[in-house]
Amino acid sequence: MTLVFNSETFRDDFSFFNSPAAVRRFPFPFDKDAYRYAVNIEPHTPGPVGSVFEFPIDVDEHYVAETLDRALVLAEDSLRSQSLPHMDLAGWDLLELLFTNMAADYPEHFTLERSGDQWHWSNRPLGVEDTFTFGDTASLPSTTTALPGPIGHALGPMEYATRQSQGDFCLLDQRHDDLWMDAGIVTTQADWSLDFDLGMSFHEWHGPVPLAHELGVFDRALKYLLNLQQGRPVRRLNWTMTINPRLDTSPENYPKWGVDRTTVTPDNLGEKVHLRVELQSFFRLPRSNGIVFPIRCYLISLRDLVTVPGWGQRLHRVLISLPPELIDYKGLSRFREQTIAWLSQYDEQATSQTVQ
Fold first, then answer.
1. Facing residues of 299 across strands?
2. Burial class for 18, CB neighbours closer than 10 Å (0-12, 13-18, 19+)
3. What does the alpha-carbon distance between residue 313 and residue 37 come to, in Å, rounded to a whole number?
4. What residues are annotated to the active site?
5. Phi, psi at 338, each rounded to 5°
């Protein structure tokens, strides 16, 4: 499968766009007309051909643009990529997971040649040709690498691999019957900070989430993940909404994007308001026994979303059903009522619905 990569941006002029194929494969997260928190974990098994679930690691038309945007974020703030010293082995586990799957599932774009610990990696979309010794961090390319930059420091295995991947990645260390966020690269997040959460336990980094703690959602999720088996990854979908197709909605950069919420009008809403869906997966790592938690972000404008039959009506009803705590937590307060009004034209029963 040969991909055609978009020339697009996720900042400034916001030239991001979804092709018709990308709209069709968008991971719409709602299977009913109301939304409440749930563990909603399922096996990360291969899905339909062409879907975001077809392969363990999804690569799509936004690949090149997303890696370029990641390089811009890291150039501005190197703390978006951090790894505590004991997580180096987990970083090599993650590199192996990414490179082996990308080469196997997208051979037109990526090649991995292995002779014992001597590895040669070819990434044709980014123009990368590198040889290194697996497990030897000193053998990884230095700042002269062909990766998008500038890069002002030597790269460890986690950062080297994830600069060539879409989505965010958190490396979780398992100890004392808990999971600890001890490494990660986070440049496409929905208003949370790796620098703040680094070193926190599972319940600590989920602390701000409303309602779910009282429902026992995170107790059940932690128990499940502590028993995650190697070779049996799992996944779930999460969602929020974003104004403009901006990947980096971090708290560090809130002054840049927070004001966007005040710019929504009935005339521009279809283009500016985006449904933001995260494909969250979990893989047990073979050597470190850690867990990698990839968080892949997908964006779709409401104008594109409503071209798929039933999606506009479903989202309209979901937004009406949200409890106040979730409205505030997801940052929807300023534009939710306008969005409900705009989506009402796609809901057959909208004339009987009112915004609470």
1. 276
2. buried
3. 20
4. 236
5. -65, -40
Phi/psi for 108 (5° steps) reads -70, -20
Rounded to 10°, the helix 336-343/311-321 angle is: 140
> In terms of DSSP H, where are the helices of 227-335?
254-257, 269-272, 302-305, 311-321, 324-329
Cis, peptide link before residue 150, omega less than 30° from 0: yes
Q: Specify the DSSP class assigned to residue 241.
A: E
Say if CB 343 and CB 321 are below 8 A apart: no
Gap between the Cα atoms of 249 and 16, Å rounded: 15
Block means of pLDDT (10 residues each) for the chain, 356 residues, are 94 98 98 90 96 98 97 95 97 98 98 98 96 96 70 89 97 98 96 96 92 87 96 97 97 95 97 98 98 98 98 98 94 96 94 49
The verdict on pTM exceeding 0.85 is: yes
d(CA 250, CA 245): 14
pLDDT score for 152? 74
SS3 label, residue 274 = strand
Residue 234's DSSP bridge partners are 43, 282
CA distance 10 to 204: 30
DSSP string, 143-205: TT-SSSS---S---HHHHHHTTSSSEEEEEEEETTEEEEEEEE-SS-BS--HHHHTT-BHHHH
